[in-house]
Amino acid sequence: MTITKPAFIDINQVSVVYDSKKGPVTAIEQIDKQINQGDFICVLGPSGCGKSTLLKVIAGFIQPTKGTCQMEDKLITQPSWERGVVFQDSTLYPWMSVQENIEYGLKMRQVNPTMIKERTESILEQVGLLHVKDAHTFELSGGMQQRVAVARTLVNKPKMILMDEPFGALDALTRLNMQGLTRDLWQEEKTTVFLITHDIDEAMTLGNRVWVMSKNPGKIEKEYQLDYTYQALTDERHRVSVDDKYLTIKNEILDIIGA
Ligand SMILES: Nc1ncnc2c1ncn2[C@@H]1O[C@H](COP(=O)(O)OP(=O)(O)OP(=O)(O)O)[C@@H](O)[C@H]1O
Ligand SMILES: [Mg+2]
């Protein structure tokens, strides 16, 4: 008899139908996918195809109308610190310092104060914010605020981090830096990442798996397994070499999402 290990995340025939004033809206239909521990999944697709809906199911913010979503064989029924979420405009607490924002979740969970101090310092160092730990968040640039949001999630040592267009509001250079930081943290922390983006290059250079969705109804049309992110990890300047295969895949994705 072979005993198969349960998938880290098992999305099993998941459909989500919302009630709206105009009647039921099928946001996603029969999505069936597994995520392995340590995967970096990037999700692309046209606006309204159900990307955020899928993220909310995995995060435990909403329940599927049909099907189930499980983490390590346990049904996901509510949000948990084990699955940290970062949004594009993650709101930080303006009355707290950078450090207090980051410590907040651990304090709520009554983690031991020495551990809180250690973890907070270490994550502040990793995201390059140790020098502004006592500043208020409104004194920081947009990129720095987003680093606080990422740090605030990672300090909990979640098993998985879910990001909904986390870098969409950042300028191109800051965005590149944040992509590099996220890739490095993924490797260092051996965490699992699920990241939604509209940027095909971002998806192709970060994810080891890229899911491309189509809409009406929202489905995963195609998956690509890529190694550009590993290239970037080993490249001295953290870049990937854009080869013919890269361009072919990029064009295929553009065709699927109808851009
Ligand atoms: N709470 C809700 N009530 C009713 N309909 C909703 C709700 N949330 C989302 N929808 C609808 O479900 C569909 C999918 O929405 P979703 O936000 O998941 O798309 P998305 O792919 O994240 O889009 P975008 O790229 O614009 O963020 C859309 O048609 C949207 O209008
Ligand atoms: Mg969305």
What structural keywords apply?
alpha/beta, six-stranded mixed β-sheet, 8 helices, binds adenosine-5'-triphosphate, binds magnesium ion, nucleotide-binding, ATP hydrolysis activity, ATP-binding, AAA+_ATPase, ABC_transporter-like_ATP-bd
What report would you give on this structure?
It is a single chain. With about 260 residues, the chain is α/β, with parallel strands linked by helices. It contains 8 helices and 10 strands. The model has no long low-confidence stretch (mean pLDDT about 95). About 35% of the residues lie in helices and about 25% in strands. It has a 6-stranded mixed β-sheet, with helices on both faces. The protein folds into 2 domains: about 180 residues, Rossmann fold (3-Layer(aba) Sandwich); about 70 residues, no CATH class. Helix 2 crosses helix 3 and helix 2 runs parallel beside helix 4. The site of magnesium ion has 3 residues, from helix 1.
Structure summarized in a few sentences:
By secondary structure, this protein is an alpha/beta fold.
Order of helices and strands: EEEHEEEHHHEHEHEEHH
Q: Helical segment tally?
A: 8
Report the portion of residues in β strands: 25-35%
Mean pLDDT: 93
Helix content: 25-40%
Rounded to the nearest angstrom, the distance between the terminal CA atoms is 49 Å
The main pleated sheet reads as:
6 strands, mixed
Architecture of the largest domain, according to CATH?
3-Layer(aba) Sandwich
CATH class of the largest domain: Alpha Beta
Give the distinct bound molecules.
adenosine-5'-triphosphate, magnesium ion
The gyration radius over C-alpha positions equals 19 Å
Give the overall shape.
Answer: globular
Oligomeric form: single chain
**Biggest sheet: strand arrangement:** 6-7-8-3-9-10
The name of the CATH topology of the largest domain is Rossmann fold
Low-pLDDT parts are none
Q: How many runs of DSSP E, i.e. beta strands?
A: 10
